[in-house]
Amino acid sequence: MDPASLDAADPLASYRDRFVGADSDLVYFDGNSLGRPLAATRDTLAGFVGGPWGERLIRGWDEEWFDLPLTVGDDLGRLVLGAAPGQVAVGDSTTVLLYKAMRAAVAARPGRTEIVLDRDNFPTDRYVADGVARECGLTLRWIDVDPAAGVTADQVAEVVGEQTALVTLSHVAYRSAWIADAPAITRIAHAAGALVLWDLSHSGGSVPLELDAWGADLAVGCTYKYLNGGPGAPAYVYVAERHLDTLTQPIQGWMGAADPFLMGPTYTPTDGVRRFLSGTPPVLGMLPLRDMLTLLDEVGIQAVRDKSVGLTSYAIDLADQELAPLGVGVASPRDPGRRGGHVTLTHPAMREVVAALWQQDVIPDYRDPGGLRVGLSPLSTSYAEVECGVHAVRQALDEVS
């Protein structure tokens, strides 16, 4: 089917108009790294400066801001993560929250000596795990995976055991978009007595999640990709209710204390997921995220997922037709049930292709080895944009090869 017909039949097509720049000629294939801003966020930020900040000043903390990490966290849980209230908090960067969650998990499994992860996990996850392992005298147990796919339940079952303290994996692989079998992997880890930490950075806002139903222990994710929170937007952490009274995070700050304004001589963690907070919450950084959550509440995450499957399937069809004759491969799952919101196309010249495309206002990104990622944010991307971008890739390949 031609892109005009696909766009005409798309029930979410009109939502594209709500994003800044979506009506321009620029082809944006990087929504899986930084989402477009919502037009409504212009008014949100300006109104905040003139209203709650400018008029209410420090009174804003008592009126709303103090609880914002938890109220926005509850909305994230309800709309995106499949988590009941009281288990999600927003604040810090993904890296900091990964450290907090990993450190808390291994401390909850004393005597166990191993952290299980895969060699193709996102670099930050691997680097943080390496630091935690060195800090705590633990060993990293690596899973070798196909970079065009991802970790399987069978691979996890082969390496977990009585020494496993933590299994930490990405739900959607950043390179291939492989969707891990989270329920099965979580069950396998639990059977070995280990905890599981899921990185949701490449799935939150694109793939429906069911953390409570999976039996997940911990999860962390960013909000600047499919959740359109903006550059440097705060991350979120999920801690299952059953662990809230026992897990202790390592960065003790006043906002996670039982009585933050007592300013007492010793630290006592508060109850609930607030104990995973440390410093002053990033109030400004949560405002664009809250706008996007309002939109997701209107649209529904399943509708977003349906559009995502349509876009990525169309991109693969076009790649097969137009790029495969030039030697381009698809390094992402062809089964949409195993594929997240992006598609990786491989060719030895892709680094040069991406550099050339950026000069033409066609914006994918590059990942070794030889991978051009087509990141398709469902609410801000049209089928016509996908076709235009794939045509540009073909032309660039002809020019650089």
TrEMBL record:
<dbReference type="GO" id="GO:0005737">
    <property type="term" value="C:cytoplasm"/>
</dbReference>
<dbReference type="GO" id="GO:0097053">
    <property type="term" value="P:L-kynurenine catabolic process"/>
</dbReference>
<comment type="pathway">
    <text>Amino-acid degradation; L-kynurenine degradation; L-alanine and anthranilate from L-kynurenine: step 1/1.</text>
</comment>
<keyword id="KW-0662">Pyridine nucleotide biosynthesis</keyword>
<comment type="subunit">
    <text>Homodimer.</text>
</comment>
<keyword id="KW-0378">Hydrolase</keyword>
<dbReference type="InterPro" id="IPR010111">
    <property type="entry name" value="Kynureninase"/>
</dbReference>
<keyword id="KW-0808">Transferase</keyword>
<dbReference type="InterPro" id="IPR015424">
    <property type="entry name" value="PyrdxlP-dep_Trfase"/>
</dbReference>
<comment type="pathway">
    <text>Cofactor biosynthesis; NAD(+) biosynthesis; quinolinate from L-kynurenine: step 2/3.</text>
</comment>
<dbReference type="GO" id="GO:0009435">
    <property type="term" value="P:NAD+ biosynthetic process"/>
</dbReference>
<keyword id="KW-0032">Aminotransferase</keyword>
<protein>
    <recommendedName>
        <fullName>Kynureninase</fullName>
        <ecNumber>3.7.1.3</ecNumber>
    </recommendedName>
</protein>
<dbReference type="GO" id="GO:0030170">
    <property type="term" value="F:pyridoxal phosphate binding"/>
</dbReference>
<dbReference type="Pfam" id="PF22580">
    <property type="entry name" value="KYNU_C"/>
</dbReference>
<keyword id="KW-0663">Pyridoxal phosphate</keyword>
<comment type="function">
    <text>Catalyzes the cleavage of L-kynurenine (L-Kyn) and L-3-hydroxykynurenine (L-3OHKyn) into anthranilic acid (AA) and 3-hydroxyanthranilic acid (3-OHAA), respectively.</text>
</comment>
<dbReference type="InterPro" id="IPR015421">
    <property type="entry name" value="PyrdxlP-dep_Trfase_major"/>
</dbReference>
<dbReference type="InterPro" id="IPR015422">
    <property type="entry name" value="PyrdxlP-dep_Trfase_small"/>
</dbReference>
<comment type="similarity">
    <text>Belongs to the kynureninase family.</text>
</comment>
<dbReference type="GO" id="GO:0043420">
    <property type="term" value="P:anthranilate metabolic process"/>
</dbReference>
<dbReference type="GO" id="GO:0019441">
    <property type="term" value="P:L-tryptophan catabolic process to kynurenine"/>
</dbReference>
<dbReference type="GO" id="GO:0030429">
    <property type="term" value="F:kynureninase activity"/>
</dbReference>
<dbReference type="GO" id="GO:0008483">
    <property type="term" value="F:transaminase activity"/>
</dbReference>
